Amino acid sequence: MTKQRELILSILKQSDRHLTADEIFFLAKLKMPSIAMATIYNNLNAMNEAGVINRLHIDGVADCFDKITEPHDHLLCDRCGKITDIRLPALSGDLERALGTEIEDYELTVHYVCPDCRHNTKRR
Amino acid sequence: MTKQRELILSILKQSDRHLTADEIFFLAKLKMPSIAMATIYNNLNAMNEAGVINRLHIDGVADCFDKITEPHDHLLCDRCGKITDIRLPALSGDLERALGTEIEDYELTVHYVCPDCRHNTKRR
DNA sequence: TAATAGAATTAGAATCATTCTTATAGATCG
DNA sequence: CGATCTATAAGAATGATTCTAATTCTATTA
User: Fold this and answer.
1) Closest to A105 (Cβ–Cβ): which among B101, B105, B111?
2) Is strand D within 7 Å of residue B26 (CB)?
3) Which residues pair with B75 in a beta bridge?
4) Among partner residues B57, B98, B112, which is closest to A103 by beta-carbon distance?
5) Residue A84's pLDDT is what?
6) Which residue range(s) make up the domain with A24?
7) Could you read off the pLDDT of B44-73 as tens digits, one per residue?
8) Is A16 on the interface with B (CB under 8 A)?
9) What percent of chain B has pLDDT over 70?
10) What does pLDDT average to over chain B?
11) Based on the structure, what is the number of domains in chain B?
12) In Å, what is the separation between the CA of B56 and the C1' of C17?
């Protein structure tokens, strides 16, 4: 656990949003101007593999990273692009039952139109 | 519907696997040597947006493309990387009920260890 | 059939995110 | 204190994808 890793992790913890590597790089540079992009990725990848954070891919957008509180799913508004975390505790078991096999894990992204966008009729 | 698009679509239809843009490019070049990578992407993107085919992202692998028969989910073996299509007709309704909102669509990738790999104890 | 407009294609340059490489710096341990 | 190990910095390299400009094809109209 190096200073750099600590910094990156604290940035993720303090954010309530999903951050791209680039955004993390920008924020990290404010506190530690010498930090390198490679260090960001090294640490994000290491923490992702260790299960400390989560890498999240959404079509057409750079990968985002995310602190892990509990395993969770994502709700993506197709109009404004906002990502909301959701938790469907029963789903994992439901999937095992439906598939008839043990599963390791799953990734679920649900597309919808968020309440804000549903009320604003104008599309982006 | 140009010759190029027809060719690309027929390649996808004839394949029982998920193909990367690169694999499609290679196969298309066999039949139409002058075809350009940009044409592959133009057409894949156009067909993806039109809902004729499906773009599929799996962490650490180039995006794959896939003919659409019916909307479907993916089962990914974490050891050998094999992707299997699955269909969980009830899930969409279940999600709407669980979330209490109408949804547009969803993407689900389930990680597991396939039967073959489960029997071969050696990890990849 | 010839001319023209519009759309799709080609080729390759450009871009973006990400990874790799190499040299350096920092920490750890005897 | 010196040796070794690991992580970092910097920037080059890579790979997938998109963009751009020029060209070709297609359909339409005269």
Assistant:
1) B111
2) no
3) B84, B110
4) B112
5) 87
6) 3-66
7) 999 998 888 999 988 778 899 988 777 678
8) no
9) 95
10) 88
11) 2
12) 18
One domain, residues A119 and A86: yes
- Backbone dihedral region of A81: left (phi > 0), alpha (psi from -120 to 50 degrees) or beta? left
CATH of the domain at A119: 3.30.1490.190
| B26: confidence class by pLDDT, cuts 50, 70, 90 | very high
**Distance measured from the CA of protein residue B40 to the C1' of nucleotide D30, in angstroms:** 36
CATH number of residue B26's parent domain:
1.10.10.10
Looking up tokens 């990968």, which residue turns up? A63
Exposure string over B28-61, b if 16+ CB within 10 A, otherwise e: beeeeeebeeebbeebbeebbeeeebbbbbbeee
Residues A19, A54, single domain; the answer is: yes
Average pLDDT over residues B5-17: 93
Q: Is the CB of A38 under 7 A from strand C?
A: yes
Q: How would you write B9-63 as a 3-class SS string?
A: HHHHHHCCCCEEHHHHHHHHHHHCCCCCHHHHHHHHHHHHHCCCEEEECCCCCCC
Residues in chain B within 8 Å Cβ distance of A90: 98
> What average pLDDT score do residues B79-104 get?
88
B114's tokens: 């396939």
Which residue from B minimizes the CA distance to A97? B88
Say whether residue B110 is in contact with chain A using an 8 A CB cutoff: yes
pLDDT higher than threshold 70 for residue A122: no
Confidence (pLDDT) at A71: 65
For chain B, the C-alpha Rg in angstroms (whole number) is: 17
Q: Is the pTM of this model over 0.90?
A: no
Confidence check: pLDDT of B84 > 90: no
